[in-house]
Write a structure and sequence with these properties.
Helix content: 40-55%
Radius of gyration: 22 Å
Order of helices and strands: EEEHEHHEHEEHEEEHEHEEEHHEHHHH
Oligomer: single chain
Strand order of the largest sheet: 5-4-3-11-12
Strand content: 15-25%
Distance between the termini: 31 Å
Number of strands: 15
């Protein structure tokens, strides 16, 4: 599966700062210290509908991480999956009378278009669940051999009790986990399971559903094992950051960490777990199940500049839960217009301190609102006082592009 084209990232003078981010597994900020190559895995979409603002906010956060790392001199290996076979996709296909593969291909293509328009840097490896099946099957076999998996009526489950580190990603109690497990795709009440929280690794073929012939029998993979197989294939264990929305902390990232640790006998699966907040509309979390969605593609069709969409996202700290509003978008459009007017002038006040402020803000747990405020202050000085530095507008334009992903 191919990703989307990369926008050019302008070179900046000097060097960026080490990244400090909030790590869910430790419950505190920590400085992530990659080697020469930084390794990042971000969970991708299940392609049964178009990219909404919740998706865009999540991928914007991890795009900032890529930009901070690159500015600090690291190469970045970024991996993202596409869950192109799963129950929600199959259910949508049945409900709408579409072929599930055509639905997945169409929505994945639209996602690529949205990511390109928003200037999100693409992953080096963009892998679908279906194409990962040859990697998933031997991983499930290893878990069976290690005694960390077992069969129930042809299906294969992972035993959460096999991993002594289970629970360390989300830091939730079993009482807190159970309702989330049921809500987010788990089956706590299935007879024959060893533990109510045990997740599905491999689903035996069901009538009328897609399945593949493998050494495990005819079937298809569970949700969590997909990301683990892809991450291990392209990043290995102990990679720098596992990322996604806050709703993936449990069960998805918790289960994935345990799968990887028990399959390899190594710990940890990832050094840090970073999670973006949820975006709401009309007082409720934006989600496909509720249908309260604002789509990137629809805004683009309505003529909204993708730079304004991105600025609307950047106006909120990535870990916060917030609400999408028309007023917020209008504010972003006005900000974009004022920034573009400022950098179009032949000179201005020195921008070296602004570059430092943007770098410091983003290195401090991706504080994009502080970075926007710093640019606003430079623009205000440009409007009120002018300046005599002919290089300043160009530096501001390059810094905003390279570090915030907004083309001026």
């Amino acid at each position: 599966m191919h990703a989307w084209p990369a926008s050019e990232v302008p070179a900046l003078p000097g060097k960026g700062l080490p990244l400090r981010v909030y790590d869910t597994s430790s419950g505190a900020p920590r400085t992530v210290e990659p080697g020469p190559t930084a390794r990042l895995y971000v969970c991708g979409i299940t392609p049964y509908d178009a990219t909404h603002m919740g998706h865009a906010a999540t991928y914007n956060a991890f795009d900032l991480i890529q930009r901070v790392w690159r500015d600090a001199g690291h190469d970045v290996v970024y991996v993202q999956n596409v869950t192109d076979v799963d129950d929600p996709l199959l259910e949508r296909a049945v409900d709408t009378g579409q072929d599930w593969t055509e639905l997945a291909e169409r929505e994945t293509a639209l996602f690529r278009e949205d990511m390109t328009a928003l200037r999100m840097l693409p992953p080096a490896h963009y892998i679908g669940a279906v194409e990962a099946i040859p990697t998933i099957v031997p991983l499930v076999q290893r878990l069976l051999e290690a005694g960390a998996a077992y069969e129930v009526d042809g299906d294969i489950y992972f035993s959460v009790e096999s991993d002594p580190h289970f629970g360390q990603v989300s830091r939730l109690s079993e009482e807190e986990m159970l309702p989330l497990f049921a809500e987010r795709g788990g089956d706590p009440d299935r007879p024959g399971k060893k533990h109510r929280l045990d997740p599905l690794l491999w689903m035996a073929a069901r009538p009328g559903e897609p399945a593949w012939e493998t050494e495990l029998g005819r079937g298809r993979p569970g949700w969590h094992i997909e990301c683990v197989a892809i991450a291990l294939e392209h990043l290995g264990m102990d990679f720098d950051i596992q990322g996604g929305g806050s709703d993936l902390s449990f069960p998805h990232h918790e289960m994935g960490a345990s799968h990887g640790q028990m399959a390899t006998g190594e710990y940890p699966f990832a050094k840090a777990y970073v999670h973006a907040g949820m975006v709401a509309l009309d007082g409720e979390k934006m989600s496909k199940s509720r249908g309260n969605l604002v789509f990137v593609s629809r805004l683009r069709r309505d003529g909204v500049d993708p730079g304004a969409i991105r600025l609307a996202l950047l106006a909120h700290h990535y870990r916060s839960d917030w609400e999408w509003t028309d007023a917020g978008l209008a504010e972003a459009e006005a900000r974009l217009a004022s920034w573009r007017a400022a950098v179009s002038r032949p000179d201005g006040p020195s921008a070296e301190s602004l570059l430092r402020e943007i770098r410091e803000a983003l290195a401090n747990d991706l504080d994009a609102p502080a970075a926007l405020a710093a640019v606003d202050r430079w623009v205000a000085r440009q409007s009120a006082e002018g300046g005599a530095d002919p290089s300043a507008p160009g530096l501001v334009s390059r810094a905003v592009d390279a570090l915030l992903g907004v083309a001026l």
